[in-house]
């Protein structure tokens, strides 16, 4: 009990909680649009670009955005679904996928570690904001499970496995395999409060080091999936691309206060085509495969440009008109960061 009170106090003193609804970095109108489009009455976040499924990542993002919108009732609704429908594993982690068209709805009980981190992080912040000890205790259980089940040492580095099963050296020829976009850098200090260990510091530092080493192809970009068996490189089991997952890498670096300007500039420059539109990039050739003009993708590039060069965000990317779950989420996280930390960008 005393340790969790100390966590609440530490989080509060670090100014992670928002004092009033008017100060919320996600506006009431934005949150109303987001939840009207993606939040099911049962509390699940619907990935409408992926067959209407729900997943631990989406539930974590939903919790984080509800916190940023200062909406405790919606937060509780999302948490209720997450707790009852996804936290089914014996180790304290969430199953990664819930399919409304499948019977049963959960067929694969493997976890997705980015979802676990997002859920734990949002629960800790919500617990501090609304003085909910049950949220903090749940966050601590997940943080301990992430640390014990998915954080490993390999090749002198501390790394984050994308899931408990399927990514270790013994699971695949080019293992261990990681997803660089799973490193939620902003959450690491909070995870350290929840589950005290210097492994969180090492995980943060080694995640940045791995990204620095993943300058693949002419565009010098990190892949969606990387093999750490020897020198970090694109995993042979996946398309060698900078794609949907990887787009959030520079956003996570910025939100995590990683001030590596060379790394940020390299990714910013490589993630767009010659017209400046964020694209899926084929790493061996450095050529764009598909443009991704949605505001939610474009704002990530534009936010990094503002952080590096002071260029304000274009008016187009500040307009929130959600169409698909994933880019809409990235857009709100980008806008929230700018409002809280870089008001000159707005």
TrEMBL record:
SUPFAM superfamilies: Six-hairpin glycosidases. Gene3D superfamilies: 1.50.10.10. Residues 1-19 form the signal peptide. Its EC number is 3.2.1.4. GO terms for molecular function: hydrolase activity. It catalyses: Endohydrolysis of (1->4)-beta-D-glucosidic linkages in cellulose, lichenin and cereal beta-D-glucans. Keywords: Carbohydrate metabolism, Cellulose degradation, Glycosidase, Hydrolase, Polysaccharide degradation, Signal. Belongs to the glycosyl hydrolase 8 (cellulase D) family. This is cellulase. It comes from Rhizobium helianthi.
């Amino acid at each position: 009990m005393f340790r969790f009170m100390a966590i609440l106090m530490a989080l509060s003193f670090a100014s992670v909680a928002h004092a009033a609804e008017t100060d919320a970095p996600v506006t009431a109108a934005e949150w109303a649009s987001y939840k009207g489009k993606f939040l099911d009455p049962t509390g699940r976040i619907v990935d409408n670009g992926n067959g209407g499924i729900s997943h631990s990542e989406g539930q974590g993002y939903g919790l984080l955005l509800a916190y940023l919108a200062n909406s405790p009732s919606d937060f509780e609704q999302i948490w209720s679904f997450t707790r009852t429908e996804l936290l089914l594993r014996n180790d304290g982690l969430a199953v990664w996928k819930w399919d409304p068209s499948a019977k049963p709805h959960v067929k694969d009980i493997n976890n997705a570690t980015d979802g676990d981190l997002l859920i734990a992080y949002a629960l800790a912040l919500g617990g501090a904001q609304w003085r909910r000890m049950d949220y903090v205790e749940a966050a601590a259980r997940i943080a301990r499970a992430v640390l014990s089940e998915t954080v490993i040492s390999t090749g002198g580095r501390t790394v984050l496995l994308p899931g408990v099963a399927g990514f270790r050296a013994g699971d695949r020829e080019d293992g261990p395999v990681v997803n660089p976009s799973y490193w939620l850098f902003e959450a690491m200090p909070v995870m350290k409060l929840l589950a005290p260990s210097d492994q969180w510091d090492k995980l943060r530092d080694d995640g940045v080091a791995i990204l620095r080493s993943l300058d693949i192809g002419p565009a010098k970009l990190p892949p969606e999936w990387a093999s750490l068996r020897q020198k970090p490189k694109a995993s042979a089991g996946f398309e060698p691309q900078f794609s949907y997952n990887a787009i959030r890498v520079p956003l996570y670096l910025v939100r995590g206060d990683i001030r590596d300007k060379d790394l940020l500039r390299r990714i910013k420059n490589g993630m767009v085509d010659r017209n400046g539109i964020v694209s899926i990039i084929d790493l061996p050739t450095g050529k764009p495969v598909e443009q991704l003009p949605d505001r939610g993708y474009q704002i990530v590039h534009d936010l990094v440009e503002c952080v590096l060069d002071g260029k304000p965000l274009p008016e187009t990317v500040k307009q929130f008109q959600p169409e698909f779950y994933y880019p809409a989420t990235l857009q709100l996280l980008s806008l929230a960061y700018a409002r809280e930390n870089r008001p000159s960008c707005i």
